[in-house]
Specification:
The structure is a single chain. This protein has 420 residues and is α/β, with parallel strands linked by helices. The strands form three sheets. Strands 1, 2, 3, 4, 5, 14, 15 and 16 form an eight-stranded mixed sheet that branches. Strands 9-10-11-12-13 form a five-stranded parallel sheet. A three-stranded parallel sheet has the order 6-7-8, sandwiched between helices. A hairpin with a 4-residue loop joins strand 1 and strand 2. The chain is globular and about 65 Å long. The protein starts with a strand and ends with a strand.
Length: 420
């Protein structure tokens, strides 16, 4: 395969240039000007398009096993490819939980049949109960790329600290869902003016901030690579900033919905704007953008959370939290961050490629000879409207929005896995 005339942006080296890319046996074999093609060569003319490393999402829910009416490994992989993602990390809150090597190996074995690279995080605690540590060493040996009880906070600080010590020993990231249920009456909606209009209490930001403060301190003391997942509060961003300056190995994820929307969206979109942690105030949204701009937040992840139409059509207090995000993530980054001038395209792609690859030790995130041919080709100026989803679910408030940045082709291991 020969890709000609594309504008390459490589965040791993902070280089941007126009060149041809020659791919052989799933690997980039040459990058230079005017590469000659063999007679039988598949040629892709990328003139006018941007070529970047295949996107990496560190936080997805493919609901497999246990909830495959919402999503499964195959449909999740298709949604990822359409969004420009060549690598994803699935969360462990499946049924059964990914707390044993048997469950982990089953998922990884079935993932090998899919067109993108599917990695799997294992749970920190058995059955997500926060009481008994899993055999983290055995799970890492079996292929777990990190550890998380995502969906449920780890409330016991001493237990979490032991997990951090083990994660540091294994050189594996530990990712945390920061919501203390003691503060929450109705999860998924921010406690504030919007929740008052709806006649419910909601989830105050202190539920997140209190655990972030504790866990930033534990991260500093333990030395573990610790990820604050789907950060939603401006105060949480500041806490991460402070503890990173003190030397903690902290990382933070921001989702496209948290840097694009506020809790006002709940009044317009109902349960389609309900997620954990919830959308918060405009001030919080601005602080998340500031954290992205100054590097406090180093990863953009979707928290892709599919639910059926029937589930999302329940009354808002009964509907499950979460939205899909893989097919709109890049475009929301370009529309909400790049075009307003908060980030350059290079900086956006850095948070969606090389940063996650380095943190999770993934064989991806770089465009260079000898590297895996995982690439996304897109037009950052093309205007489009999401609506034809390949995910099994369609629970997104962004359906019908005018977004800039259209994925035209996704290549994984030298194979075209999506083409518009």
């Amino acid at each position: 395969m020969l890709i000609k005339n594309g504008h390459i942006i490589n965040p791993a080296t902070h280089e941007a240039y126009t060149a041809d890319i020659l791919i052989r046996d799933g690997v980039i074999s040459d990058i230079s000007d005017h590469i000659s093609s063999a007679v039988s060569e598949e040629i892709i003319d990328a003139e006018g398009l941007t070529i970047a490393p295949g996107l990496i999402d560190t936080h997805v829910h493919f609901r497999d096993p246990g909830f495959t009416y919402k999503e499964n490994l195959h449909t999740g992989a298709l949604a990822a490819a359409k969004g420009g993602f060549t690598s994803v990390i699935c969360m462990a809150n499946t049924s059964p939980t990914v707390d044993s090597t048997d469950v982990l190996k089953d998922i990884l074995a079935r993932s090998e049949n899919e067109a993108i690279r599917i990695f799997q995080a294992a749970s920190v605690s058995h059955s997500l109960r926060g009481e008994t540590l899993t055999d983290m060493a055995a799970l890492k040996e079996a292929g777990a790329c990190g550890f998380t009880d995502d969906g449920i906070p780890l409330r016991n600080a001493a237990f979490l600290y032991r997990a951090m010590e083990k994660a540091k020993e294994l050189n594996a990231p530990l990712s945390l869902h920061e919501e203390d249920p003691a503060f929450i009456k109705n999860n998924g909606i921010n406690h504030g003016a919007v929740s008052e209009k709806l006649g419910i209490y909601g989830s105050p930001s202190v539920a997140e901030e209190s655990l972030v403060a504790r866990d930033c301190l534990l991260a500093l003391r333990s030395g573990a690579h610790t990820v604050i997942q789907h950060i939603s509060s401006g105060r949480s961003v500041e806490l991460v900033r402070i503890f990173k300056s003190l030397g903690a190995s902290l990382h933070a994820e921001a989702t496209p919905h948290h840097f694009t929307l506020t809790d006002e969206a709940v009044l317009k979109y109902g349960s389609l704007a309900k997620m954990n942690p919830p959308l918060r105030s405009e001030e919080d949204r601005r602080e998340i953008i500031r954290g992205l701009s100054d590097g406090t937040i180093d990863i953009i992840a979707t928290d892709h959370a599919p639910h059926s139409r029937e589930e999302k059509e329940r009354p808002i207090t009964a509907a499950p939290s979460g939205i899909i995000g893989l097919e709109t993530s890049l475009a929301l980054g370009i529309t909400s961050l790049v075009r307003p001038g908060h980030l350059t395209l290079m900086e956006l792609l850095e948070k969606m490629t090389v940063n996650p690859a380095r943190l999770y030790h993934l064989p991806a995130g770089n465009i260079a000879a000898g590297e895996n041919a995982d690439l996304v080709l897109f037009d950052p100026e093309e205007l489009w409207q999401p609506g034809e989803y390949v995910s099994l679910s369609s629970n997104s408030p962004f359906t019908g929005w005018d977004l800039y940045g259209k994925v035209k082709m996704t290549i994984c291991g030298g194979n075209i896995v999506y083409s518009s």
